[in-house]
Amino acid sequence: MGFPDLLFSTKGRINRGNWWIGIITLIVCAFVIGWLFWTVQGTSMFFTFSGRLMSFILAVAVLFMGYCLNAKRFQDRNKPKDFAYVALGINLLKAVSDLFRFTGDPWVHNAGDTMFQVALVLVGLWYIVELGFLPGTAGPNNYGPDPLAPDLYPTQPKT
Fold first, then answer.
1. Are 136 and 13 in contact (CB under 8 A)?
2. For the chain, what is the mean pLDDT?
3. Which listed site, 47, 50, 132, 152, has its alpha carbon 20 to 30 Å from 80?
């Protein structure tokens, strides 16, 4: 599976190693892009609609890629990709809430910020244990072949 398929498709299964690679890549890329936004916009990133909109667009892109990773990993554990909607939904609600400035002020947290933080920590712990540490289903399952199984039909070099 290539990197674009890893981040932009929900088909098939991925093992823990590929999930960790994808998650770490997303975190690093989001941090770097967020830092660049901060460098260019400063605090207006939080206090102007255009700054919040740019942050929202970045969040949606990262959330979609995270959803694809989580969906494939849940499928490796022979569970429907619908479980990946939990984190996607909470994060998307938080991003919309930040966009319209109900939450997201880095200097003054409100009850909404706290509720989102608690929910995201709980879901994050569940995902880390389930997707990052527990093994996938051995052998083929409803979502495809085992990503750790040896290739039964290796390609022959052309002569």
1. yes
2. 92
3. 152
pTM score of the predicted model: 0.89
Decide if 5 contacts 72 (C-beta within 8 A): no
pLDDT digits (tens, 9 = 90+) for 101-140: 999 888 899 999 999 999 999 999 999 999 999 999 999 9
Q: Helices 85-99 and 111-127 meet at what angle, rounded to 10?
A: 160
Scanning the structure block, which residue is given the tokens 């199984």? Answer: 149
Q: Is 58 exposed, middle or buried (0-12, 13-18, 19+ CB in 10 A)?
A: middle
CB neighbour burial string for 120-129, b if at least 16 within 10 angstroms, e if fewer:
eeebeeebee
Residues 6+ apart with CB under 8 A from 3: none
Q: What are the two backbone dihedrals, phi and then psi, of residue 141, each rounded to the nearest 5 degrees?
A: -135, -165
**Residues belonging to the chain:** 159
Distance, CA of 71 to CA of 54 (rounded, Å): 26
| Three-state DSSP state, 123 | helix
Q: What are phi and psi of 144, to 5 degrees?
A: 135, -175
Of the chain, the end-to-end C-alpha distance in Å amounts to: 26
- Separation of CA 149 from chain center: 25
